[in-house]
Amino acid sequence: MSWTTTQVTAPAHRIDLGIGQPDPALLPADLFQQVSLEAPALAYGTEAGDERFRSALATWLNRRQTQPASAGNLLVTNGSSNALDMICTRFSQPGDTVLVEDPTYFIARRQLSDHGLTTIAVPMDENGVDILELAALIDQHKPAFFYTIPTFHNPTGITQSTERRAQLVALARDTGCPVVADEVYQYLYYDQPPPDPLASFDDRAPILSIGSFSKLLAPGLRLGWIQAPQAMLAPLIGSGLLASGGGLAPVTSSLVRPLLEDGRFDHHLSRLSDIYRRRLATLVQGLTDHLDDRLEWTTPKGGFFMWTHWRNGADTDAMLLRAHEVGVGFQPGQKFSASPEQASAMRLCFAFYDEAKLTQACERLSRL
Ligand SMILES: Cc1ncc(COP(=O)(O)O)c(C=O)c1O
What Rg value do the Cα atoms of the chain yield, rounded? Predict the structure, then answer.
């Protein structure tokens, strides 16, 4: 019996570096064969999510962030996408404006549009969003919130510096404009750990940090969290969705909790990071060997993506058909931004394929 489980598929002959998902070969089925279900997890759960899971998650997070979180600062979600959806429902009205980074994750934009929201893109530099521009746009548009990907940004790989984060948090506190930080790549670093999640900078600021196990364990778990001051979580916890259906992912969170508590998750994450670190190095080597004179890029220090630009300004959207002919794929810059300078960009994912395939993909890209 064939069982189709993948969201995106490419023809077998194509190495599609546009696929921004974990390598199916690295999904830890063995870990889930070791854990068993406890009966209470089958009941409707408490609105914020299973308390024991949230406590275990808080302990895990607190080993990695300076300002401690507690179970009361955490809300369990069905991954990051669901978290953003719930935030849109409770923090915006159709017709509102939301500020996003330029470029930004194209499916987040689609989610915002599903809620009838208008997006305005704010420029970034190598340290993250341009704070002066952001402040001016907040003043002008009174947005429902600002959506940012502060760590190992999708698509650019940029990580907001500590100084920039402090400025952003201060701006959120001063203006009251909520900041929604999508931090799905926060714990996938291949060099030094990145600065703390935004929500742990200042518990008086209206910041919602979103985390997810999709890239850390498996996307099929549909398990994530929002870390925020209790006052920011209250509208979410008080939603009709949770009042009717109870807390999210009671079964999944009960399976993941023991892995968090006894170090099996840490062990998996460290192995995963080693593999992704090598894959990133392989992609950099392949681009250097085959495309150094034609492409430019900045090497990210974590996450899934390498953001590259053709030096001759070639339009990558128009190039994609030819790329498919030579058996390679990528995400063209126009998906992430309307700015003309991003039309020559390609987002390359180094997480989905093994090293041999990444090298082969670079050789194929060089034929374009
Ligand atoms: C920035 C960003 N946010 C959210 C997601 C989706 O995460 P989840 O599976 O937790 O919904 C992705 C996946 O590609 C992503 O890159």
Answer: 20
The answer to whether residues 338 and 327 touch, using CB atoms and an 8 Å cutoff, is no
Q: Identify the pLDDT of residue 3.
A: 55
Strands (E) in the chain, as ranges, are 15-16, 74-77, 97-102, 118-125, 128-129, 145-148, 179-182, 207-212, 224-227, 295-297, 305-310, 328-329, 331-332, 345-349
Q: Give mean pLDDT, residues 207-219.
A: 98
Angle between helical axes of 51-62 and 250-261 (0-180°, round to 10): 40
- pLDDT value of residue 9: 77
d(CA 168, CA 161): 10
Reference 126, options 343, 307, 288; nearest CA is: 307
Q: Model confidence over 62-119: pLDDT tens digits?
A: 999 888 899 999 999 999 999 999 999 999 999 999 999 999 999 999 999 999 999 9
Q: Decide whether any atom of ligand 1 lies within 6 Å of the 258 Cβ.
A: no
- The pLDDT tens digits of the residues spanning 349-367 come to 999 999 999 999 999 999 9
Which of 271, 269, 274, 276 is closest to 352 using CA atoms? 276
For ligand 1, say whether the CB of 211 is within 6 Å of any of its atoms: no
Distance 109 CA to ligand 1 centre (A): 12
* DSSP output for 69-103: P-GGGEEEESHHHHHHHHHHHHH--TT-EEEEEES
Residue 79 beta carbon below 6 angstroms from any ligand 1 atom: yes
Ordered domains of the chain (ranges, CATH) = 15-27+266-365 (3.90.1150.10), 35-263 (3.40.640.10)
Task: Tell me the pLDDT tens digit for each residue of 306-334.
Answer: 999 999 999 999 999 999 999 999 999 99
Q: Let me know: does 9 contact 329? Beta carbons within 8 Å.
A: no
Report how far residue 75's alpha carbon sits from residue 54's, in angstroms, rounded to the nearest whole number. 8
Whether the CB-CB separation of 308 and 332 falls below 8 Å is answered with no
Ligand 1 binding pocket mutation candidate from 78, 82, 107 (most atoms within 8 A of CB) = 107
pTM for this one?
0.97
Classified as helix, coil or strand, 45 is strand
